[in-house]
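User: Can you fold this complex?
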Amino acid sequence: MQSAGSKRGFAPWADPSVRPLLRLESLSKRFGGFTAVDHLSLDIYEGEFFALLGPSGCGKTTLLRMIAGFERPSTGRIVLDGIDLAPVPPYRRPVNMMFQSYALFPHLNVEANVAFGLKQEGLSKLEIARRVADMLALVKLDTFGRRKPHELSGGQRQRVALARSLVKRPRLLLLDEPMAALDKKLRGETRFELMELQRRLGLTFVIVTHDQSEAMTVADRIAVMDHGRLMQVAPPAALYEQPNSRWVADFVGDVNLFEGRLGDDGLSVEGTAAGRLRVAAKSEAEPGQVVWVAVRPEKLRIAPEQPLTGLDNSVAATVVDIGYLGDTSLYKLRIRDGSQIKAAVANVGRADGALALEQRVWLSWPPEAAIVLTR
Amino acid sequence: MRQNPPRSFWQSLVVRIPYAWLLALFLVPFLIVLKISLSQSAIARPPYTPVFDLAAGWHGIHAFFAALSFDNYVLIGSDPIYVVSYLKSVEIAAFSTLILLLVGYPIAYAIARTPRHWQAVLIVLTVLPFWTSLLIRIYAWMNILQRDGPLNALLVALSIVKEPPVWLSTNTAIFIGVVYSYLPFMVLPLYATLEKLDESLLEAAADLGCPRWKIFWLVTLPLSSSGIIAGVLLCFIPIVGEFVIPDLLGGSRSPMIGQTIWMEFFGNKDWPAAAAVAVVLVCLLVAPILVYQNQAMRAVERD
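Assistant: Here's the predicted assembly.
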């Protein structure tokens, strides 16, 4: 079904001989009685675009700030290139951060902002000017060098912040919600620019975001976090198609869950609200154990008549809510036990076969569309 | 530049009240002082001529203007006592403003970095001396700085000095009194700018390779420049014209300009000369105010 690799055939995490660039070992951070990061271990590889995804307050920003050196870990180690970063102050770490607020120096113009980090390295004026010019050209701000941050638009400020953190060619670039302040359209374009930039420069990016579509678009691998712990680490497609828990399935996209008991053959789940459900892949759970069948809304088929394929994986339902989004329509349907099912249908034709409220329909899905979750 | 919407009658009235205030309580008194400075001292009531008299008609007004002269300004320029007095005032003000900045900046910085719920307490403590009259506080300093006062007793007890030094009637005493009295005027504007300083800018500087002292120099200090300018002007300008502190704590040999004006008025009863000294002082002080205005305008445009 899914390969372990990402969309560009890049999968160093699947190769045990590759040494990770960054290794987090049982890292914890407590603020008083509150545990922001809880014994978290993670490997990030050279050239990877890695996303930390989670709801607000899940500890992802704290994790980033520990890597940057702004927070001291309560326990555990941060190892970069084989070197423990604990005694290294932020200004000596080969790591740069792009701040959510951008944190541009308001008293310096764009050039001086970008040159700031290079000046600290004691490079020659000529070298600094050349690298600043190159970097500004790369983010398409060549003509804005003399402007002050307050004379730029939000999108331009974001590029300056990006240029400023990239110009030092860090071993690791940390991006804290880099697109949170942009409007939706610009955010969409910026995602692809960010990916292109990362590939062209060959640097390692770690992005923090609460936006799952952002993480899915840009990242080679995504770590889903909740309450300071890793819930799952996987490439986007694997995360979406093979979530390891109901929490991840629900957090990454929408999902319909049917609770039941695993059948003796390991390929069916008995006694759900939709009757007996069949799945394609054998679950490692014990027969008789309580499990959940997860089906994504877009994998459901809606038909006016009961499908001929049989009674498995089909259920009668009533349309209770319709959300028309243009490209897709989202339906909420009620099945016989009163629970609600979400279905998404791509609007391929023009309003043909549109459903009406209170209409009686049949929902069905192939066994390959569903997976069994044990927790 | 932004285009302002047209104002209603009430809005424009509200905007004009400060101008009316300045006109009535600054510009008109200043014009009266300016007129007196162009008059001649006389034994009369009021003690100068000419006196404006509308009853004398057109001829009288002509005679009035003919009697005005710049003699007093010539006097100020020719008698070194005035020049020395101005220089001493500017010197004392400049030096004590520098001390105030060096003392006030760390205090303001520390308050701005304290947890928020403590900041209000510390600010109240900073302005607490204002609860007592300035005069009483300066008298208290006279007591402290006396030859057999608490300061010398302490210094002798700690064996820092053998012979108790003389403090009163020295420039040192003036500096102590001035720095003590004006410290809140330096701390408050500095605190106001430092408190607004975005913490993430400091982190960004550290992230880009700056050790702590360099962050202060490259980020904190330039971003608090508006507070520094406000604090410096709030201290420098009134210190130049300060009268009470040098009169009570300083020596009588070389007076500051406030004392010189006082002497002209009450000692020599020469109102025109005193007025001329005051007018020159105002002109000297307008220069730094204009600098400040310019800076403030630029700050407004930036936001």
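The domain at 254-373 of chain A is CATH 2.40.50.140 (OB fold (Dihydrolipoamide Acetyltransferase, E2P)). Chain A has two domains: 12-94+170-246, 254-373.
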